[in-house]
Amino acid sequence: MTGTGLCHEALLYDSDTAYCDAVLPFLRDGLADGDALVAAVRTDHTALLRDALGADAAQVMFIDREEWYRRPAVTIAGWRGLLAQAQARGHGRARIVGEVVFGGVDRHRSWTRYESAVNALFADAPAWIVCPYDTRVLPDQVVADAHRTHPVVRDPDRRDSTGYRPPAALLPELPEDPPPVTGPPAADLVLRDVSELGAIRRTVRAVASGWPDDPLDDLLLVATEIAINGLRHGSGQRHLRLWRADDTIVCEVSDDGPGPPDPLVGYGPPPDDSLGGRGLWLVRQLCDAMAISTTAGRTHVRVAMTAT
Question: For the whole model, what pTM was predicted?
């Protein structure tokens, strides 16, 4: 690889041997080049790589992928921080092995969107990211989507992906699945003006009765931010609705507007000199799930949070 921009590559493998044959040279070449090395991988792969690298393993930052891949926006913020730290230490480039936790079916769409968004959010970053996909265990659709979200694919031959779709084209085709709700909402408010934020917070507190203070504070912030976003950027009649099922609360703000034109909205922070644009970014950091959808002329921003 040459150049200073991002290289985002999917490694499709079906054995530990195939995995090591690709990942170990990648890391060893990075050591020779003076690159920063990070591996957010499975526990068994951490053991494989440590054993094979020997003393050189100390030069690799190993991360528990189960902790790292919990929320896409949080993971993106984490990568931004690690890349900044690598540059501050004098590394000209970072090599990353990132094994996304696709988990159950309800996570597939979110993390496929993440894989696509990375191409835009880190387009100019001096980073080479290899994303291993275990074809023995991952669903066929997840593996097929790797061709659409990675400009380069290796299986084991390395080549440009003929199925690659830029994020601006792919993300609108892969909308997030809205967090599910059952029955009528526990609360339904018509939003008219930001002066009503006090009423919104009182309503949220009532629906979230019994929640611990810390998650309640996060829920209040999330509800307030999506309400302000709807009032400032939406149009027509705005509603805030809340549903509760056990310790999970779903909050939705809807309006008659077309929704945000940028499919990457909220995935990254706004520029430092921007006066706005942090609301949905904060929301994506805090909530367990978030979806923006436009149907029948109305836009819905729906989030889910659990009091854990």
Answer: 0.91
Torsion of CA 253, 259, 262, 263, to 10 degrees: 70
Phi, psi (degrees; rounded to nearest 5) at 96: -125, 130
Residue 29, CA distances (Å) to 37, 109, 155 in order: 10, 33, 19
Among 255, 240, 266, smallest CA distance to 293 is for: 255
CB burial readout 35-54, b (16+ within 10 A) else e: bbbbbbbbeebbebbeeebe
What is the chain's length? 308
Amino acid in the structure at residue 291: A
The burial of 76, by beta-carbon neighbours within 10 Å (0-12 exposed, 13-18 middle, 19 or more buried), is given as buried
- Closest to 122 in 3D by CA, of 86, 151, 83: 83
Rg (CA), the chain: 21
What are the average pLDDT values for consecutive 10-residue runs of the chain, which has 308 residues? 79 97 98 97 98 97 97 95 96 97 92 97 97 97 97 96 97 92 96 90 96 96 94 93 96 92 86 73 93 90 93
Q: Token match 């990675």: residue?
A: 150
Task: Say what the pLDDT of residue 82 is.
Answer: 97
Spell out a b/e string for 238-254, using b for 16 or more CB atoms within 10 Å of the CB, else e.
bbbbbbbeeebbbbbbb
Helices then strands, counting H and E runs in the chain, come out as 10, 12
Task: With residue 39 as reference, give the H or E element that holds it.
Answer: strand 36-41
Q: Which two tokens stand for residue 215?
A: 């998650």
Neighbours of 32 (CB within 10 A): 8
Distance from first CA to last CA of the chain, Å, rounded? 43
One-character DSSP codes across 256-269: SS---S-TTTTTSP
